Amino acid sequence: MGCLLLLLLIIGLPMAEIAVIKLVASQIGGWDTFFLLVFSAVFGTYLAKHQGAVVLSRVQQSLTAGRAPTIEMIDGLLVFMGGLLFVFPGFVSDAMGLLLIFPFTRWLIRLIVVACFKVKSQDSSPVQPQPSASRVDAGSHKDRAGVVDAEVVE
């Protein structure tokens, strides 16, 4: 499923971009289309930078409050991916980038991403922890988990 989606993105997205650029160019002209593509790249980069700063401040607030910034980190990744989509010339990738950058559409995509990861983690079998070398004691010592033997060397 993942490989099929990747193949669709690699082949389908450039084809869709070319078709939409041709359609827009036939309606408004080649130079206007070019300037619109440049404007969307510059504007999208500005939006990504602004939203990235907002997400970074939310990460810092979560860390200051002593919480793990999981939602904020997912938002940061989505904003980063949205910014990358603006770098590629085309209107389809710009539309996808807008969906990832704007907070009122990003929350829905975040819900989908989290749901996909929950399904993946439930499908995988649990891994049994292996005893580490620090937990295996030799001789008559009892299990001393959490105790670290150290030697000071001057």
| Main pleated-sheet profile | none
Report, as a whole number of angstroms, the end-to-end distance: 58 Å
- The secondary-structure element order is HHHHH
Helix content: over 70%
Structure commentary:
The chain has one domain. The chain is 73% helix and 0% strand. It is built from 5 helices and no strands. It has helices at residues 2-28, 30-64, 70-87, 91-101, 103-123. Helix 1 crosses helix 2 and helix 3 packs across helix 5 (103-123). The chain is elongated.
Record the SSE blueprint.
Elements: H1 2-28, H2 30-64, H3 70-87, H4 91-101, H5 103-123
Helix pairs in contact: 1-2, 2-3, 2-4, 3-4, 3-5, 4-5
Question: What brief labels describe this structure?
Answer:
5 helices; 154 residues; elongated; 73% helix; 0% strand; mainly alpha
Quick structural overview:
The chain has 154 residues and is an all-alpha fold. Helix content is 73%, strand content 0%.
